[in-house]
Amino acid sequence: MDSVIVITARTASGLEETKRMIEASAKDVEVIAETLDHSTASYHDYERLLSRAAKHIADPEEAVLVHNAATRGDLSKYAASYDDAQMIGDYFRLNLTSIMLLTSSFLKRYGTDTETTRTVIVNVTSIAGRTAFPGVGLYSSGKAAREMYLNVLAVENPTVKVLHYHPGIVKTAMHAAAVENAVPELQAIARDFDATAVTTEATAAILVDVLRNREFQSGTYVDYSERAAAP
User: Fold this and answer.
1) How far apart are CA 228 and CA 231, in angstroms?
2) Span 61-229 CATH architecture
3) What is the pTM of this model?
4) What is the pLDDT of residues 162-175, one digit of tens each?
5) 22, 31 in Cβ contact below 8 A?
6) Phi, psi for 159 (deg, rounded to 5)
7) Ranges of H-type helices in the chain
8) Of 199, 111, 210, which is closest to residue 165 (Cα–Cα)?
9) How far is residue 121's CA from residue 123's CA, in Å, rounded to a whole number?
10) How many C-beta neighbours within 10 Å does residue 85 have?
11) What are the residue ranges spanned by the domains of the chain?
């Protein structure tokens, strides 16, 4: 196998289908499906996950960590109504703390002291991390915090390349369901955005092209729409 991809989710139901789709389109890729709840995973859970993955490819030329796991939070609430400390804490435990723990364990194995492996961290982000919209107080805070955490990490670790990728408004069932119960202002904004929604295949292709060319500076923010419109 030329490459190994490790995919994770809380339940195994969707993982196997995703694994099948990847392997059907890329015969030289081995896919490892791991059931893992990022809302409760510890640093040592991530260490064990990476240790299992390393058995499939001992000394990779390049190690890429993609932070894509995220939740939107309750989009029916305005920021001034956040009165539940448990709800707020749980949100950031999944959407920020787990990112830090996984990144730390990843860099322990494929970090600055690794002479033979190029290390890249991809943060799948959102325009909501840079622009304020009604109803997304938790989501926007989480996305903005992720970006700044990884930007600090990039400054501290010059040999690690960090890429923030905004995939655009992607056509998924989760997106449609989340917006359906959002505050009215956000529903109206989402309807405008839906006109420019893209497929998962289209936005993934742009990301792969950016990673393949390796022309970005560490900490760069890449927007799908801008790349897709470029000649």
Assistant:
1) 8
2) 3-Layer(aba) Sandwich (3.40)
3) 0.92
4) 999 999 988 776 66
5) yes
6) -85, -5
7) 13-25, 43-54, 85-92, 98-110, 137-156, 173-180, 184-194, 200-213, 224-229
8) 210
9) 7
10) 8
11) 61-229
